[in-house]
Amino acid sequence: MASVTDRSVSPTAPAPLDMNGLSWVLFGHAAFQYLNAACELGLFEALAEREKTKKKEIREQLGLAERSVDILLLGCTSLGLVTKDGEDYGLSAPVAELMQAGDWQRLKDTVAFEQYVVYEGQLDFTESLRTNTNAGLRRIPGTERNLYFRLNENPKLEQVFFAYMRSWSELANRHLVEEVDFSGVSSVLDVGGGDAVNSIALAKANPHLKATVFDIPSMRELVEGKVAEAGVRDQVAMVTGDMHADEFPSGFDCVLFAHQFVIWTLEENTALLRKAYEALPEGGKVVIFNSMSNDDGDGPVVAALDSVYFAALPAEGGMIYSWKQHEECLRAAGFSNPQRVDCPGWTPHGILVAIK
Ligand SMILES: C[S@@+](CC[C@H](N)C(=O)[O-])C[C@H]1O[C@@H](n2cnc3c(N)ncnc32)[C@H](O)[C@@H]1O
Predict the structure, then answer these.
(1) Distance from Cα 147 to the centre of ligand 1, integer Å
(2) Which of 179, 181, 282, 335 is deepest in the core (most CB within 10 A)?
């Protein structure tokens, strides 16, 4: 069985499909609701307290009616989210491993994001494909041009989004920190750097390094709070601006795009990379860090599933593009010889590094 911490795990699409597989896809939305309810009700934490737990104990701890606990346990045991041995319930192996690895809250933040940000907008997936634009944005209150500019008007969504974004980054940015050589880099421009999660990780791992988050003005308070909390105010700064409309600031020898090139069209990605090329000195580095799909267009399945969100919701044109497509954008922007850095694990992350 694949372990959540196994570096050799590379999720692929199950094939060939049988009727059982088809029914999982058919009711996939309901499977997710069991996971979400179990997270929100604290089922996994209740099971983590003892090795074996009886239904009555679960019922009392969760404060649920008998029928409700029957439904929850029927779903969670049949999906394998929890184990059942006679009358005893327990944690499934991946949940126990995530807890042990300290990644459980990160998984729960991702579940909350799927439930509160992603789910509704995905109702417009077909319409998004038909119109080749993010039709699901209409489900997010506001009139601003994309999800990011609307988050500030929707505090609950904003909180759920950035808790997830931090957790999703942290599930994979250990590869960014460990596998990319920042020893010769003195200053990183972190374009669309969010709440500074990756700048902070890089700063902590490289005491010589300075990083600047370049994000929209509404992000300033969140970034400054996180930087102060992490104790890296002398290393991590922030500038505000619009990455599409404004020139990139100069004076940096590395430009990082973390979780950016899944949002925009390939043309926009190339334009952003051109700006990076212009802003960098000779020998400067560009680093792309986000989910990647296979060059053959057949997986991994998590990249395919996550592409529904990028097609339907955040901005007009995005998906989990392939490694090859990212490399073509890099070459069109002037960068030659991009290097691939694989990020083994259950998330479909990858890293590309290229030098000017
Ligand atoms: C998917 S999040 C990635 C955050 C962070 N890089 C990470 O990996 O966790 C995209 C970020 O891009 C920012 N962003 C979106 N449009 C932008 C624009 N036009 N100019 C600058 N930042 C922008 C958003 O505010 C958000 O913080």
Answers:
(1) 10
(2) 335
